[in-house]
Amino acid sequence: MTDQLKIATWNINSVRLRLPLVERFLQTYAPDVLCLQETKCPDASFPFAALRKAGYQNIEINGQKGYHGVATLSRRPLTGTERRRFCDKDDSRHIATDIPFADRNLRIHNFYVPAGGDEPDANINEKFRHKLDFLDEMEDLLGATQFPCIVVGDLNIAPYEQDVWSTKQLSRVVSHTPLERERLEDVRKAGPFVDAMRAHIPMEEKLYTWWSYRARDWKAANKGRRLDHVWVTPPLAPKIVDVKVIEEARGWEKPSDHAPVLTTLEG
Question: Which domain holds residue 242?
Fold first, then answer.
C-alpha cells in the first residue's frame, strides 16, 4: 500500500498574530506536517490547544520571545527531536524530528537561517558574518546525514537567477549575492541533497515564495524571491509527486510576507 506524505513549510512571521491563517491553511490544504519559521513566540505561549484542536496532536517547538522560533506540527507521531544551537547563540533557529514514512523513519530538519542585515560585507556587518557562520555549521551538520532526510525552511537565500525578479538588480542585495548563492549550494551538496522545488519546477520558470510588504500591490508588482526551500536526500527525490507554492496565502488578510510551500511524497 502506497504511503502519501504532505509536508508544508511556512515562515509565518508570528504564529500568535497569524493563528487564524495557520488554521485556515491546515483546514484547506490538510498537510500531514507543517513546519513553521519565525514563530516569534516563547514556548510557554505557543498556541498548542488551537492547533491540536485542528488535528495536529504532535507538536515540537523551539521558540523565544519576540524573535526567530521554529515549530513542527504533525498528524503523525514525532520522535527523536533535536534542537541545535548555532554560532554559540541562543537563537531558536532549528528543530529536527523523525516521522514515520513508507515503513521507516524520515528525518525532518526545520531551519530559519539568519537574514543577514543590509550590507553584504562580513567585515563591517556582524549580521552578515553571523549568516555565513551559520551556513558553515549547517554544512557540517547536513554533511553528516546518513538516513532519509528532508530539509525545509526559510533559508533566506535565493540561489538561482530565476529565483528572483531581477538577478541584475539584486546581485548586490543580501539574499542573492554571489557569495550567499555559492555558500547555499555548498550546504545543499554537502548532504548531498536534491533541490525538490527545482527538480519539480523547471529551472527556466520564475519561482518565488516571498514578496515584500513594501509593494503596494505585491501581486501586480511580482517582485519576489525564492527564500523558502525543500531539499531531500537523493533516494527520496523520485518519491516527490508534487511541489507547489500556495501563493493565495500571501493575499489573505494580514498575511505573512512568505507563502507556504507544500510538497507531496509517495512511497
Answer: 4-266
Contact 114, 153 (CB under 8 A): no
CB 226 within 8 A of CB 208: yes
How far apart are alpha carbons 43 and 61 in whole angstroms? 7
**To which residue does cell 551559520 refer?**
134
Instruction: Report the DSSP pairing between strands 228-232 and 194-195.
Output: antiparallel
Q: Mind listing the pLDDT tens digit for each residue in 61-113? A: 999 999 999 999 999 999 999 999 999 999 999 999 999 999 899 999 999 99
- For residue 152, give the amino acid letter: V
Helix ranges restricted to H, 98-195:
126-143, 167-170, 178-190
Q: What is the pLDDT of residue 244?
A: 98
Q: For residues 41 and 68, give the distance between their C-alpha atoms in angstroms, rounded to a whole number.
A: 8
